[in-house]
Amino acid sequence: MTPPFPPTGRYAPSPTGALHLGNLRTALAAWAFARSRGGRFLLRIEDIDTPRVQAGCEREQLRDLQALGIDWDGEPLRQSGRTSLYAEYTRRALEAGAAYPCFCSRKDIQLALSAPHAEEGTAAYPGTCRDLDAAEVARRLGEGRRHSLRLRVDRAPATFADGFAEEAPPPLAASGDFVIRRADGLFAYQLACAVDDALSGVTEVLRGDDLLDSGARQAWLLRCLGLPVPSYYHIPLMMDSGGGRLSKRAGSDDLSAYLAAGVDATAVRSYLAWTLGQCGPGERLTPAELASRFRLEAIPRTPAIFRVEDLRMFTGK
What we know:
Number of helices: 11
Number of strands: 10
Order of helices and strands: EHEHEHEHHEEHEHEEHHHEH
Mean pLDDT: 91
Low-confidence stretches: 114-122
Strand content: 5-15%
Shape: elongated
Distance between the termini: 52 Å
Helix content: 25-40%
Largest sheet: 3 strands, parallel
Structural class: alpha/beta
């Protein structure tokens, strides 16, 4: 039977800060993985958390992706215009009994976790609102009680299959039922991301292994909604020279900082490809060359460590 979509990957940045080299490395890997097999590559702007969106950030992120030779099919999808769609799928989850209103505040959850009967060391949502009877739920909703929506995980599989990561994430029950719509009305990352992947025809999600737990949550959510589940590939991150994570919050340098310092985009692309195991030291690659030779199995199983001296090997000077 012919699959409904060709191999289709994606990259989904949040316009909350500049893309550092670790972000760009993941984008490059996802792009090359899809293009190496003649697949489609989509771009999604995850701007649903509007209070955190920075003006002009999306434009700068697209510029940096294009500078590295990353292209995409069609127009970028923006989550901020899809809230009615997310509302529809939360409604379906509620009607199917897969989700429920949760009236707990953060303080309520912390108190429950610190109670004498709570399992020592657990951080799982204790399921306080999971089995409230329908009359009690209706009463609280009728009072206008502030609430989030959570997805049940008590029937979720104990294991999650990833196409790259060697370690499996903890079972979903370890962290408990998770939020798909926040109490402030914003839709959670897990819901918006999973629904958009399925409805866009994404067949493969290659991203950093810091999102391995999210892979298990999103796969379960899609099964609950009866939507197709992509294949997941979670690869090791790029770390700084001290072994810490590169991050927007920590002010990790973005592409423009290196271009301003005289490091050309080909050098950055090739350096990132080298950290992904796709070329030799100092070898300068065009985007087409990277896509034609990309092999998932060549990606190292340990985190990449960013070193300026390694980047300089690729400047051709």
